[in-house]
Amino acid sequence: NAGVTQTPKFRILKIGQSMTLQCTQDMNHNYMYWYRQDPGMGLKLIYYSVGAGITDKGEVPNGYNVSRSTTEDFPLRLELAAPSQTSVYFCASSYPLPGLRSSQYFGPGTRLLVL
Amino acid sequence: ELKVEQNPLFLSMQEGKNYTIYCNYSTTSDRLYWYRQDPGKSLESLFVLLSNGAVKQEGRLMASLDTKARLSTLHITAAVHDLSATYFCAVDSNYQLIWGAGTKLIIKP
Questions:
Q1: Among A18, A72, B30, B94, whose CB has the most other CB atoms within 10 angstroms?
Q2: Residue A41: how many CA atoms within 13 Å on its side-chain side?
Q3: In contact, A11 and A110? CB cutoff 8 Å
Q4: In angstroms, rounded to a whole number, what is the distance separating the alpha carbons of residues B30 and B22?
């Protein structure tokens, strides 16, 4: 299994540009998550999904959109990039245990710089 | 609002010493996770603590959970340089994990 994969690894955007961060997992996990991590900080949840067709906002959803058409894929869309969106973005997935969820498995991250 | 606080945020210690990282959280939860992050890398799951009194150990690391005190500890025994990393705790709350700010641990030879 490849686990959780993310593309691209690094990207520079100009203010106002749009892009999609790709995330794919091959573990058949129901739950998927997008986080951002600013330098020296913890993680903040952007969006999450509990299954195909179901998404919900996390702590910091403004400026982002997601979709979940398949179990495997959970892309994150930035519509109008702003410097405040400069960060490292992590995708993660987890599977349901009875009454709760497993640990989250993380992708390698996408480093985004908005200039 | 659930808050998760870690302390210390930064810890520099000598090899061979013992130390404890603390994770306090502000509301009821009986599921807590510890992760490790090396510089410039992704996060790796260390421990999942699922009930009051849970204790997990892996090598020189031991994690425990006291849900009544809303406190988890990560204890490092006889630290070695390879344990240098940032350690995060996270508390499960309604499909989401709420994360602490992380403890940056530097272990000097």
A1: A72
A2: 12
A3: yes
A4: 16
Pick B10 or B2 by higher pLDDT: B10
From chain B, the residues in CB contact with A58 under 8 A are: 96
B31 vs B7, residue with greater confidence: B7
State whether B43 and A101 contact (CB < 8 Å).
no
> Is residue A77 within 8 Å of A65, Cβ to Cβ?
yes
The span from the CA of A45 to the CA of A60, in Å, is: 6
Cβ pair A100:B95 closer than 8 A? no
With a CB cutoff of 8 Å and minimum separation 6, the contacts of B4 are B23, B24, B25, B26, B89, B90, B91, B98, B99, B100
Give the tens place of pLDDT for each residue, A70-114.
999 999 999 899 999 999 999 999 887 655 557 789 999 999 999
CB contact under 8 A, B50 and A103: no
